[in-house]
Amino acid sequence: xxxxxxxxxxxxxxxxxxxxxxxxxxxxxxxxxxxxxxxxxxxxxxxxxxxxxxxxxxxxxxxxxxxxxxxxxxxxxxxxxxxxxxxxxxxxxxxxxxxxxxxxxxxxxxxxxxxxxxxxxxxxxxxxxxxxxxxxxxxxxxxxxxxxxxxxxxxxxxxxxxxxxxxxxxxxxxxxxxxxxxxxxxxxxxxxxxxxxxxxxxxxxxxxxxxxxxxxxxxxxxxxxxxxxxxxxxxxxxxxxxxxxxxxxxxxxxxxxxxxxxxxxxxxxxxxxxxxxxxxxxxxxxxxxxxxxxxxxxxxxxxxxxxxxxxxxxxxxxxxxxxxxxxxxxxxxxxxxxxxxxxxxxxxxxxxxxxxxxxxxxxxxxxxxxxxxxxxxxxxxxxxxxxxxxxxxxxxxxxxxxxxxxxxxxxxxxxxxxxxxxxxxxxxxxxxxxxxxxxxxxxxxxxxxxxxxxxxxxxxxxxxxxxxxxxxxxxxxxxxxxxxxxxxxxxxxxxxxxxxxxxxxxxxxxxxxxxxxxxxxxxxxxxxxxxxxxxxxxxxxxxxxxxxxxxxxxxxxxxxxxxxxxxxxxxxxxxxxxxxxxxxxxxxxxxxxxxxxxxxxxxxxxxxxxxxxxxxxxxxxxxxxxxxxxxxxxxxxxxxxxxxxxxxxxxxxxxxxxxxxxxxxxxxxxxxxxxxxxxxxxxxxxxxxxxxxxxxxxxxxxxxxxxxxxxxxxxxxxxxxxxxxxx
Length: 727
Known about the structure:
Belongs to the TonB-dependent receptor family. This protein is mostly beta strands. Helices cover 5% and strands 57% of the residues. The strands form 7 sheets. It has a 22-stranded antiparallel barrel.
């Protein structure tokens, strides 16, 4: 009985207390406490900000935003939330509503020390530049249009730290920090470009149609992307479908037989977005070959992209592209050489939330055909020269997972590749196959103003063995105007099919090169320190020091004469090299004029011989001026000046093939002249849908000695038309 009376007394006392509470003062149950749902976005581009800390002021309660920038935190009306994340200004926002279904939108201002751009990282995940301690340059569509770049090399060669190198007889390549094309990984939407297995790399073959941006990562990137990334990575990223129906077309014509045309259409209907682009370009010059006469180059491109929202959070993508190229160039004895390249590649991808993080699955396929023929006429002769087609086939299958947990963002995944080279009479057994399995993981840890990263990738191949490569990085936002960074990484380049299984015979030159199944992967250890100072959004200065030590470089070694009396060379791991230097870049906006200037110093040497690496200029610089003029509405002017200093040519024994990047011959046999090139373009907005352009490349008409990629002065005129259903 007493317990019952005691319980009744408790209820009565509680009722009296509630009656004594004034009606204007809410009790705890009516205080507006609830789960506040919100999203953190960048004011610069409106994109989600991942792993931002959201803390309720006056308490220890804090949460982190997910990969969509969303968060949920317990608070009440009148509370203040403190939001901060590396690369953005901190912000305090009041809680004004805790009703279910209401979303608190928090817009953060990006710091000037980190460009508001995105870059691709491990597992094909796209991150902000502020989430990486690496040196990354992102060239957007605005810069591509400013220099009328129809191919990737026309834009990349203007960056300090990047040099254009010849790849005779008809190709050109880009070196990064002293590393040539086979040691710079080139990707399109994160997948390798065609031609690498046949060693038919040509950066000039890559079109910029439908390109949203080009990402240039300097320094070893094997942890993020695998083999071939000793010097860095160039990733060409295609634009996403537009929301409204958009039709885009370009016509351009100029000197040296330059003719270009592109046409594109894009739209999103309901859950499905698509983009379809086609292009054609030709010239009376061949990239990497400065001879006139019969030279000719023509390329057709086709690119398509379909993206589907399977649900609110799951998406799918299908990307297919193809190209066809014909090159013609003069040979000795009134003969012409012909190279025909045909390629197609594509991938299917799905991604969405899983196990508290985000899961991505991608399947990639690629086909490429190379054929070389000769003729005294302007068309090739069937069955001439090495008329048998060489084919490469690649398949890559990726499963990647990422998760933001507190101050950490984890990335992990596995990738399996199958590669086949078919080259009758060239490769032992007429074909070669390789299976590659890669496992990778990385942790990005944010501690206040400091970002720490640590990761590794293990690669196993049925052709050459295995390699494990780690990396660590640090970024420190010391103040809102100064960001420091540092990296230490190990990179590698796997020996290719041609180096292991390929035999090249040149009876006219009196030599042959044979493969070597005992080759080891080339490896490097790299360190870099740098920083960005940006006192405002109108001015910035970027400086970076770097050093790369490379060993087991593959080079030719003389083995004596074969049974027929020809000189025989074999691919062996013989060379060691070091590249080190300084990169600087400054930007300022004054009275509507944007000036960008950069300078790069490079010292690249073969450590075994003490000689410099061939065609590596010690000094490169660039100046770009861009301005819009009020005198004539819609008039834009762009001027780019680039300087590449003289560079030595390192010789090789008489009768040997064209010099490689790490030749062992003792002596400098020539000097590549310095190049001062000036490009300019004027663009006039005729209407809201049409733009007229007039410009010129190499306006100074320079053709330095032994500078193979240099062309004559070239003027051009273009018309760009764009129509959008949203207008």
